[in-house]
Amino acid sequence: MKSKLTYLIIASVMLIINACSKDNGDISYDSRSGQGGSMARFAIKGNYLYVVDNQSLNVLDISNLDDPQFIDKIEIGFGIETIFPFKDNLFLGAQDGMYIYDITNPESPSQTSVYEHITSCDPVVVNDSLAFVTLRNGGSCQTGFTEDQLDIIDISDLDYPINLVSHEMTEPYGLGLDSIILFICHGEEGLGIYDVSNIYSLKIVDFKTNISAYDVIPYNKNLLVVGETGFYQYDYSNLNNITLISQILIGE
């Protein structure tokens, strides 16, 4: 299962979605920025590729795709798991917290702050003022943390991230955000769709129990879900009728 899931996650984060316009009311990317899932280990911003390994952030210049250049390796700590780009910042999910890096100078990321939490697995997605972080124990996390939860963090001041509220969750993995709609993968339990307009009282919009879900990529009202047995694409333009529009299954 592990190798299959790894393959699916790598494939999903390599889905490059170009030129999100400002008209969508959300994030604006340039023509060489990629949108991957919350469990991605790399991100593209302009002419630069950022890759995390277990302990560091690596910077590569990809302005010439035939001859990418290694620029820098920044040591961070232990247990770095995921990377999520937003505007001129990178949000790194680690087993001990969330690291925020400024990439105004794209060749030399600088640490802005760290939000620390109890050791656990930690994907993250963000908007202009909030970060949503799922904390999960068990499996490869190898922690003594016993609670599975969603932390919602105030990042309006990137220098001082503050946890606003935590919600108990069941086996949360990757997550995706579109305006006030938060998608959370719950592994074998399925896919949860939540209205987070009131962060202190989440509303369940829908819950898909007929799939396993490990990561998601929302884009233009289409949702790519990465599961243990394949890819699933949902149309969520009507939140009252979220429908499966395609799937690619792989063998057991």
Describe this structure in words.
The protein has 252 residues and is mostly beta strands. The chain has a single domain (2-249), classed as YVTN repeat-like/Quinoprotein amine dehydrogenase (Methylamine Dehydrogenase, Chain H, 7 Propeller). Helix content is 5%, strand content 45%. It is built from one helix and 20 strands. The strands form five sheets. The chain has a four-stranded antiparallel β-sheet, with no helix packed on it. A four-stranded antiparallel β-sheet has the order 5-6-7-8, with no helix packed on it. Strands 9-10-11-12 form a four-stranded antiparallel β-sheet, with no helix packed on it. The longest helix has 12 residues, at 2-13. It is globular, with a radius of gyration of 17 Å. The relative contact order is 0.12.
Secondary-structure blueprint of this entry?
Elements: H1 2-13, E1 42-45, E2 48-52, E3 56-61, E4 69-75, E5 80-86, E6 89-94, E7 97-102, E8 110-116, E9 124-126, E10 130-135, E11 149-154, E12 162-168, E13 175-178, E14 181-185, E15 191-195, E16 203-208, E17 215-219, E18 222-226, E19 230-235, E20 243-249
Short structural description:
The chain has one helix at 2-13; strands at 42-45, 48-52, 56-61, 69-75, 80-86, 89-94, 97-102, 110-116, 124-126, 130-135, 149-154, 162-168, 175-178, 181-185, 191-195, 203-208, 215-219, 222-226, 230-235, 243-249.
CATH topology assignment: Methylamine Dehydrogenase, Chain H
The first-to-last residue Cα distance is 8 Å
Number of domains: 1
How many helical elements?
A: 1
Which CATH architecture would you pick?
A: 7 Propeller
